[in-house]
Specification:
This protein has 438 residues and is of the alpha/beta class. The chain has helices at 55-70, 97-107, 118-135, 158-170, 186-195, 208-222, 316-321, 326-349, 353-371, 377-390, 397-411, 425-429; strands at residues 2-7, 11-13, 19-27, 39-47, 76-82, 86-94, 139-147, 174-180, 197-203, 223-234, 239-242, 248-251, 254-263, 267-275, 284-294, 301-303, 307-314.
């Protein structure tokens, strides 16, 4: 594992309140992999509420059938469907020829009706995976949730679901999610995936369910590091937030950030916005950065040597004269823009258009001043300016979802698995779906 940590600028104003960005990059070059492929222990949790009737449920079943065709005798599969109730179709079934036949037969019994108790279905799927863990611990364990709607029964608070997902992830039981169509709850499904160490996908059209589930299965097989965690020890008076919005906790003098799982050859940047206290000119403000991870199927925790990164208190002239690291500034600007856009989408969904404009009027000058030192800074600023022009309009939900998924993929260094993925997120955000509000 290759780990790097560096500030975009290392000098800070001695009178305090300087903001700098610490970029921590984690890369698994793929050289240190398990000696042989591990078995999979997967639960597929399918929304079978009334809104899934027809093509959505049909393609969800097709995705499950495609998954079964990719599994081997060493793999285990559970299939659960949920509406107001939860139905177990297959429980930690070894995918032998007989097991595959039983699983395929059971898929034909899923019918759509009722409301959406997502939490009950998801947690039942985790129970089945946990049961499989007792038999085959040296496997990769994952729950994949497919839903097209808003949870309206059971646990509906995204924060509560995130807490469950984090606790399961600590046990090496990870969760991913697929949002189908335009009506699913983004915050709920992202909470399960982000805090559950997996990936959130969007299937805008029913046939894309097959694409993203197949891609998810491939990603699971390529995983070489789980529970990738960055720990940052800091001096007193420092305030830190994660711009990507990875799960972050704070305990005394350290922050702990969970980056989820990492595939062979993949990289992930964690970008931290840090506000500094005052200090003496020439003194150092030290940070100690350490990364840990587990290899799939292993209990041992691996870790790189701690990296020591300092910021130096300086007078105003020296602070202002220092150059920007262009590559780090570009990484920060990309994620910072995604951070801003995500909030504007939420405000648009809630009908808080004036607040969206006010937020952009505050953020745009700060962002453009920083981004002018990034290679794509002019483009990123122009996109936010166009977003400002559309902030008084109500967007359709499909546009909101496309913008959200584009920002999600950028923040978490994920790829869009869909063949027909949109290339230009800003076109969705600025589409004139309704006239400007007075």
């Amino acid at each position: 594992m290759r780990i790097e940590a560096k500030f975009d600028r290392e000098k800070i104003w001695y009178r305090g309140d300087s903001v700098r960005y610490l970029v921590v990059s984690v890369t698994d070059p793929g050289g240190d992999r398990p000696p042989a492929p591990l078995g999979l222990n997967i639960a597929l949790v399918v929304d079978s509420s009334g809104s899934m009737e027809g093509e959505p449920l049909g393609f969800a079943v097709t995705a499950a059938q495609r998954m079964i065709g990719c599994l081997s005798d060493e793999d285990r599969l559970s299939v659960v469907s949920f509406n107001s109730d939860v139905t177990d179709h297959v429980t930690a079934e070894p995918m032998t020829s007989a097991g595959r036949a039983r699983a395929l037969h059971s898929l034909g019994t899923i019918q759509a009706n009722g409301c959406t108790n997502l939490s009950a279905g998801w947690l039942r799927g985790t129970e089945h995976v946990a049961q499989g863990m007792e038999s085959v611990r040296a496997s990769q364990h994952r729950v994949i949730v497919l839903s097209d709607g808003h949870a309206n029964e059971g646990i509906v608070d995204p924060a509560a679901l995130a807490l469950h997902a984090e606790q399961l992830g600590l046990r090496r039981l990870f969760s991913s999610s697929v949002g189908i169509g335009d009506n699913y709850n983004s915050e709920t499904l992202e909470a399960i995936a982000v805090h559950g160490g997996g990936t959130h996908h969007r299937a805008a059209r029913p046939h894309e369910i097959v694409e993203v589930v197949t891609a998810e299965l491939q990603d699971i097989r390529r995983t070489t590091a789980e529970n990738v965690t960055v720990t940052i020890q800091h001096a007193p008076g420092v305030r830190l937030k994660c711009l990507n919005e990875f799960p972050l906790s704070h305990d005394d003098d350290r922050y702990v950030c969970n980056l989820g799982s990492l595939a062979a050859g993949a990289s992930r940047n964690a970008i931290f916005s840090i506000k500094f206290p005052a200090g003496d000119v020439g003194a150092k403000c030290p940070f100690r950065v350490r990364t840990t991870w587990r290899r799939p199927g292993q209990e041992d925790v691996y870790g790189g040597d701690p990296l020591l990164v300092d910021a130096e208190f300086a007078e105003g002239k020296d602070n202002n004269a220092q150059p920007h690291d262009s590559s780090l500034t570009e990484a920060v600007a990309q994620v910072w823009q995604a951070y801003i856009v995500r909030r504007i989408v939420r405000l648009n969904r809630e009908g808080r258009y004036a607040e969206a404009i006010k937020r952009l009027d505050h953020d745009l000058p700060l962002f453009s001043k920083y981004a002018r030192n990034a290679a794509s800074g002019a483009i990123l600023t122009a996109e936010l300016t166009r977003l400002r022009e559309a902030a008084s309009r109500e967007w359709n939900e499909g546009s909101r979802k496309e913008v959200e998924v584009a920002m999600y993929k950028r923040r978490y260094s994920r790829l869009d698995a869909r063949t027909a993925k949109p290339e230009d997120w800003i076109a969705h955000a600025t589409a004139d779906t309704k006239p400007p509000l007075p």
